[in-house]
Amino acid sequence: MKLELLDQATIVFSSRSANEGFARAAAACFAARLDPTLDELADVKTAVSEAVTNAIVHAYPDRLGKVTMRLRLYAGNILEVQIKDAGVGIPDVEKAREPLYTTGNEERSGMGFTIMESFMDSLKVRSAVGKGTAVTMRKRFARRTGAAG
Amino acid sequence: MPITVTGERGALTAALSGEIDHHGAKAMMNELGELIARRLPRHLVLDLSGVTFMDSSGIAVLLRALREMNRLGGSLRVTSIPAQARRVLDAAGVGRLITLD
């Protein structure tokens, strides 16, 4: 289905963990124009946090790199968030998406993709080893009085 | 780190607060680990009422606390879970491993 793009914003930041909170707040701020409920906003923040943490922890294991967050607003109250890196890539995306699978240390739970999937309506992962990964998520917000889009 | 401890050795309550993401999880894990090693509680209650945001990094923090309490032969309970954290824990099925009130 071809969606009508209404607006977009792109933010590029370094793969420092302090930017996890920044990315969550920025995504929530962009989504605010959809007049979301607190639960919808919390869902977006949580999914963004997981995707950005993946980029910071896994894409650039031993160096700082760039993480790009592209936010898009489509007609029909649809928010799309894409988190892209130019890091090491994921050799086996299917395996990476399985619950509890992690290549990280004990600070990771292996539930990131599971949470992204359950908090957003759709999740697409494209990855190429040595080139990077792009995670694209969409969520349709309940239409409420006064909401744009 | 924002951890407030109350109670006796028998039943210790640690109240976590703030945003628990990957950025802050390691420090929180270490602080909880030190608390458990120092106080050797039989029952540990983690009070999440002050947690304003939590992602899967928070799950790792809880699982680490669970492992350490299991090692001591003690129990772990998580209480006063805010709605957002509850949705994260439910999505990951953490209730099968840890008692969530």
Could you please describe the fold and organization of this structure?
The complex is a heterodimer of chains A (149) and B (101). By secondary structure, chain A is an alpha+beta fold. Chain A is built from four helices and five strands, in the order βααββααββ. A five-stranded antiparallel sheet of chain A has the order 1-2-3-5-4, with helices on one face. The longest helix of chain A has 22 residues, at 38-59. The model of chain A has no long low-confidence stretch (mean pLDDT 92). By secondary structure, chain B is α/β, with parallel strands linked by helices. Chain B has a single domain (3-100), classed as Transcription Regulator spoIIAA (2-Layer Sandwich), CATH 3.30.750. Chain B has helices at 22-39, 56-71, 83-91; strands at residues 3-7, 11-20, 43-54, 75-79, 99-100. Chain B has a five-stranded mixed sheet with strand order 1-2-3-4-5. Chain B starts with a strand and ends with a strand. The model of chain B has no long low-confidence stretch (mean pLDDT 93). Chains A and B meet through helix 1, helix 2 and helix 4 of A and helix 1, helix 2 and helix 3 of B.
